[in-house]
Specification:
It is a single chain. The protein folds into four domains: 185 residues, Nucleotidyltransferase, domain 5 (2-Layer Sandwich), CATH 3.30.420; 97 residues, GIY-YIG endonuclease; 121 residues, no CATH class; 85 residues, no CATH class. Strands 3-2-1-4-5 form a five-stranded mixed sheet, with helices on both faces. Strands 14-13-12-15 form a four-stranded antiparallel sheet, with helices on both faces. A three-stranded antiparallel sheet has the order 7-6-8. Helix content is 42%, strand content 16%. The longest helix is centred in the C-terminal third of the chain and has 28 residues. This is DEDD exnuclease domain-containing protein.
Length: 584
């Protein structure tokens, strides 16, 4: 287990997200430390290193050399002596690895580490650091063996062994299975490979590291789409030849994020298909991350890009409302009318709304039939009345006033303020079913309870924000100054950043003067999608965000659904555990 975990960490160290050197640094200006190790041939357990050879180069010039034998503290197998010529007698006076590491780590600082079959060498070095208490600096690592597999064809070299590549590039030093000779040979191999990279549009150290990894031909062919993009927060749009948006995304650094689509780390099939169809990438600069997130949502909603999965078709949201009748019932609708006063939502699907409706039907005696009932004439009762699940208003067994008090009022109260009555009824039903060992039915009711609570909590949070005509908020920008947002009825109306060292008030007033006019409307999300208002809520609720000004108070019901958040979490966790058990 220790060896498996260790190997995984070693491979992770080859990720281009290593530290130290800027990935945008040109290859000719990059400092490389080419390293080679000789070992006892065992597993990387923190020891076993018998020799280290390292050569520091930049721009084709040698800057320094580090070479030393290392006492591994264990016998050398005979076949290693035959292979390398290193004997036990040679290593007895050599320093142990814990004395060599400080000098070696200093030697490789601020440089890109290069090795042939890098996972092997990096693996031993990381294990030695971990064993002896040294922090591995996690440098960027370039593997010449992997790079050769990408650059050279089988017609040029039969394999990618160091000796084969040294012969192909006619290196000044031939590999001899001694660390310094092999490191010097790898230096010449590295320079030979770099000379071949220009034809592949690989010019920076980050490009070289990524090129060495297993990217697809489409990614290599289309990586020029990431060129020239700004390193700013905003939205990026992949467009087809006919300028149709294919995919919309957001990032705090557009250039870095778009480049990641052309790396080996991007393995999504749909993104590969999207890249094949993309012809250009458009960047939309935003003041800060919140504006970028909102613009992304609006662009996805407006264009429904085929390769975006989330946030499309906000108009398909549905509501669960109480009909305006003598004996009201629950109805799933697409839109709310100005006359609708009792409703819950929005829900992302009709199935979610129907699940919440079933929860209310379990808790209160709301009728489930779709007939329009009259106060004067009766209709035959359905089976639910015979089962005691409906008070049979169709036969006038209950007055409109009593029906409203027992069935309709609990729904109105649960959605706008206190869902205690509904929650208590559902919990009591779950307890009865559990006591009778009807666990599957209890799980169904638990899912309905979660659906009711989730929707009520969400709607009451949204209503608290969207009822405010204007909210001005600020938070510290990463590079100084303030990120500013102006929110009107839950919609982002304006955004900006005040410069460092300057009072943010003039910037805020300029944002207010040019902000979008947002009129009030009906419902908890009158002028924006629910997802946009929720993104704004998350930004406003962060501890570092300051509320600057508000046109009115921001409040939630004191006995509202929010106080049942812990219960909702327990219900969702229980459902998740049950699903996991069923799948296993």
């Amino acid at each position: 287990m220790a060896q498996a975990e260790y190997v995984q960490e070693a491979l992770a160290g080859l990720d281009p997200a290593g530290q130290g050197v800027d990935p945008a640094l040109p290859l000719y200006a990059t400092t490389f430390v080419v390293v080679d190790l000789e070992t006892t041939g065992g597993a990387p357990d923190g020891g076993g290193i018998t020799e280290i050879g390292a050569v520091k180069v930049r721009g084709g010039e040698q800057l320094g050399v580090l070479a030393t034998l290392v006492n591994p503290g264990e016998p050398i197998p005979p076949f290693i002596t035959v292979l390398t010529g290193i004997t036990q007698a040679m290593l007895i006076p050599a320093p142990p690895i814990e004395q060599v590491l400080p000098s070696f780590l200093e030697f490789i600082s601020d440089a890109v580490l290069v090795a042939h079959n890098a996972p092997y060498d990096v693996g031993f070095l990381k294990a030695a650091c971990a064993k002896h208490g040294y922090r591995w600096p996690n440098p960027r690592v370039l593997d010449t063996a992997a790079l050769a597999r990408r650059v050279l064809t089988r017609d040029e070299v039969p394999n990618r062994k160091l000796g084969t590549l040294a012969a192909y590039f006619r290196t000044a030093t031939q590999p001899t299975h001694r660390a310094l000779d092999d490191a010097k040979a790898t230096v010449d191999v590295l320079h030979g490979l770099i000379g071949r990279l220009g034809g592949h549009r690989v010019e920076t150290v980050g490009d070289a590291i990524e090129f060495a990894r297993a990217v697809t031909p489409t990614q290599r062919r289309k990586r020029h789409l990431a060129e020239g993009l700004p390193k700013i927060p905003g939205v990026y749009i992949f467009r087809a030849a006919d300028d149709r948006p294919l995919y919309v995304g957001t990032s705090g650094d557009i250039a870095t994020r778009v480049r990641s689509y052309f790396t080996a780390g991007e393995k999504r099939a749909r993104i590969s298909e999207m890249l094949a169809a993309a012809e250009r990438v458009e960047a939309v600069e935003c003041a800060h991350a919140l504006e970028a997130e909102v613009r992304e949502l609006r662009l996805i909603a407006a264009h429904a890009p085929p390769y975006n999965r989330r946030s499309k078709f906000p108009e398909r949201m549905v509501w669960l409302k109480l009909t305006d009748e003598a004996y009201p019932r629950l109805s799933v609708v697409r839109n709310l009318a100005p006359t609708d006063t009792a409703y819950l939502g929005p829900f992302r699907s009709r199935q979610a709304a129907e699940l919440a409706a079933a929860g209310f039907h379990d808790a209160v005696p709301l009728r489930q039939c779709t007939h329009r009932l009259s106060r004067r004439t009766t209709m035959p009762a359905c089976a639910l009345a015979e089962l005691g699940r409906c008070p049979a208003p169709c036969e006038h067994r209950i007055s409109p006033e009593e029906y409203d008090d027992r069935a309709a009022t609990p729904f109105r109260t649960a959605t706008t303020s206190d869902p205690q009555v509904v929650i208590d009824a559902l919990l009591a039903r779950i307890e009865v079913l559990s006591r009778d060992q009807r666990y599957e039915e209890a799980a169904v009711v638990r899912a309905r309870l979660a659906a009711v609570l989730r929707a009520a909590v969400r709607m009451q949070r949204l209503a608290g924000l969207t009822g405010i005509a204007e909210v001005a908020a600020a938070r510290r920008a990463p590079n100084g100054g303030w990120e500013l947002a102006l929110v009107r009825h839950g919609r982002l109306a304006g955004a900006g950043v005040s410069p460092p060292g300057v009072h943010p008030r003039p910037t805020l007033e300029a944002i207010r003067a040019t902000a979008e006019t947002v009129l009030p409307g009906h419902g908890p999300v009158p002028r924006a999608s629910a997802e946009e208002s929720e993104r704004i809520l998350s930004w406003l609720e962060r501890p570092e965000t300051r509320l600057v000004e508000m046109s009115s108070g921001w409040a939630s019901p004191i006995a509202g659904a929010g106080r049942f958040r812990d219960l909702l979490t327990k219900a969702e966790n229980a459902a998740s555990r049950q699903l996991s058990t069923e799948r296993s």
